[in-house]
Structure formats: structure tokens, C-alpha cells
Amino acid sequence: MGAVLIVDDNAADRALFRAILGRAGYTVHEVERGRDVLEKARAVRPHIVILDVNLPDQNGLEVCRAIRADRELAGLPVLMLTVRHDDSDVLKGLEAGADDYVAKDSDPTIIIGRVGRLIQFRQMSGLTMLNQQLLQVGRLMAGIVHEIRGPLSVIRGSAELLRVCPAGDPDNAQWVESIVRNCQILQLRLDHLMATVRGGSTTIKVVDLNELAAETVELFVRGLSPSERGIEVEVRLDAAGARTRCDAGRLMQVLLNLLNNARQAILSARRTGKVVVRTETIEHEGRRWVVLEVADDGPGIPPPFLDRIFEPFFTTRPDGAGYGLYLASEILREQGGRLTARNKENSGAVFSVWLDEAPDLPSDQVEGGEFQQGSQAERDR
């Protein structure tokens, strides 16, 4: 259901709310003093704070204002605990930034209802803001892709005309072939990038996951700043092949997000590290899966947060938005796959993308086949 932080110096009141919320499926955390609220909230990342107005060391209204002023916690819903028939506490609490209030002796169904409503409202308002941000990014990306596609089409068309033209130096043919081939590769990459921000339904095709993974890693590494070049990215591709049905552009979005998370995890501890991207085909729970893993040697995920990292807006970074992993898991769910995470035994985390295996098809019917042919030709030169 969610995590709740109760702030109340009265042990009996805490026990009452702990019992009510526990029966409803919530995980309950507690503090007695107002000065401990911010530290505890950063440690447990609750979905909501239930805050008593009257605390012995610090006024509950001051605690509420402190939450609203904190960059990491400002968006937390706050439910004020009041004494029945005391409207002055209610008004002061709302003015201090509380989202709602409830009397301590209210019926348990009222308490559960208000807690659930505030958590749901927070998630819905956050998703609305996220959709607006993604729409703006999508418009910007669409404009960039459009500006590149025009000149690219002219270059490719001119090269194809040169290729069929009988006149000219025959030695120039090799350069014409290179232009056409690389235009094809760039066109495919533009299609993938455009798909990462387009709206509407997904476009499911048979995709060579090995080629898509290699392409994504290449884009990611090229985008690293000079100060981040101490991060090594190793690719270990399944020699038997790894073909699946998915939306190639949106899967690229997922992989870029996982690579970026691995980079941030490493940099949070040191300036150098290693990320391993691996593909394999396995049988699990009676199904054939194509699995892509992104493993880093960073500090790993705190065990209490492993079950929460795919929640919308959950983050452990001060500058984190908390929707990257949520979006990644939703993208894979829409395509019939899933995203899982675990900690390695020594250090670091492993994120695994699970997708159904697709049947073998000719390369010209596989998304990424054109990239595969071009990149192999480049390697053979």
C-alpha cells in the first residue's frame, strides 16, 4: 500500500494509528520529536506524514513548514492530527502547508480514506506534471529530428544518384557506398530517437536486441563528458542471438535510462567504475525470455528501498525526479515485458529487462538488421 511516517509523542496514539494503518497494509514508521522528522523522512521516504499539531520539543506547524521548505521532501503529503472541535488548529495547520486534517478519535475508515486519498492525489498531480514535461521534451526532439532528416535525405538521394551515374572515377564508388550505408544507419538511429518521445500506441516489431544494445551503448559512451570517461562500459552479447518483439525506440529509452542510472550510482561513490551490459536467452517459468542486464559496481540499492524503486517519484538522490525507473517499468509492461532489480553480492546493482523471445526471421525483417549490416561492413573495411 505505502509507507507512513507518524509523528506523535503519545505512545498510545502511535499504537492506535499503527494498528489501523497496519491492518490496511501500510508500512508504519514513527518518531516522537519534531526535530527528528526531516532526518527520518529522508531515511525511509514515506508516502505521507501524519503529524500531530502538539509536540513537546517543536510545534507541529513549524515541522510542517520545515517539510515544505525542504527540497527533497516538499512534495510529501502532510495529514495533520487535531483534537475534535478545535477549528483553530485546523486553520493554522492548513495555513502552514498541511494537505488535510483528521481528528485523533475519528473512525478508522475515515483515517484510512484520507491517507489513501492524499497519496493518490500526490501521485496523480505528479504524473500530470510529468506528462507536461515529456510533451515539451517530445516537441523539442521532434524539431531536432525534423531538421536532421531534411539534409540527410538530400545527402542520401545525391549519393544514390552518383552510384548509378556511369560517368566519373570508378574509385569514387567506394565513397558513395559508404555515404549511403552511413545515411541508412543514421536514419535508423533517428527513427529510434523519435520513437523514444512520440506519443500514442507502441510500434511492436521483431528487434535484434544485441544490435540495439550495442547501438545504445555507443550513443551513451559518446555522450559522456571528459570527466566521466573513467566509467568503462563493457558489452557482452549473446552469441546465439537475442531477438524479441518490442518498440525499438522506447526500448532504447529504457536502456539509456538504466545506463544513466548506473553512471550516477558509480559517480556517487567515486570517479571510476564499470558497467556491464549483457544479453542472454533463457527459459523461466515455462516461457522463453530474452534478458538484457545492466550491472554496475556502485554502492548498490539500500535493501529497504528495493521494493519501492519503481514507484512514481520515489528517489534517493537530492536532485532526482523519481520517475525514470517508473517510466521504464511502464514501457516494458506495455510491451509484455518487465523490469527487475537486485543487488550484487559484493557491490553494485543489476537491472534486468525481460522480454519474450521472438522467432528467427530473415535480417531484412528484423529492426536493426540494416544497422547490423552497415556496422559490420564498416568493421570489415
Please provide the ordered H/E string of secondary-structure elements: EHEHEHEHEHHEHEEHEEHEEH
Name of the CATH superfamily of the largest domain: Histidine kinase-like ATPase, C-terminal domain
User: SS-based structural class?
Assistant: alpha/beta
Number of domains: 3
Query: What low-confidence regions span 5 or more consecutive residues with pLDDT below 50?
Result: 369-381
Count of runs of 4 or more consecutive helical residues: 10
The count of DSSP E runs of length 2 or more, i.e. the number of strands, is: 12
Strand order, biggest sheet? 2-1-3-4-5
**Helical residue percent?**
40-55%
- General shape: elongated
Largest sheet descriptor: 5 strands, parallel
Overview features:
alpha/beta, Heat Shock Protein 90, 47% helix, disordered C terminus, Helix Hairpins, five-stranded parallel sheet, 12 strands
Quick summary of this structure?
The protein is of the alpha/beta class. Helix content is about 45%, strand content about 20%.
Structural write-up:
The protein has 381 residues and is an alpha/beta fold. It folds into three domains: 2-106, Rossmann fold; 128-200, Helix Hairpins, CATH 1.10.287; 201-380, Histidine kinase-like ATPase, C-terminal domain (Heat Shock Protein 90), CATH 3.30.565.10. It contains ten helices and twelve strands. The protein has helices at 11-23, 37-44, 60-69, 87-96, 108-164, 173-195, 209-222, 248-267, 324-334, 369-380, and strands at 2-7, 26-31, 48-52, 78-82, 100-103, 205-208, 231-236, 243-246, 273-284, 287-296, 338-343, 349-356. β4 (78-82), α4 and β5 form a beta-alpha-beta unit. It starts with a strand and ends with a helix. The model is unreliable at 369-381 (pLDDT under 50).
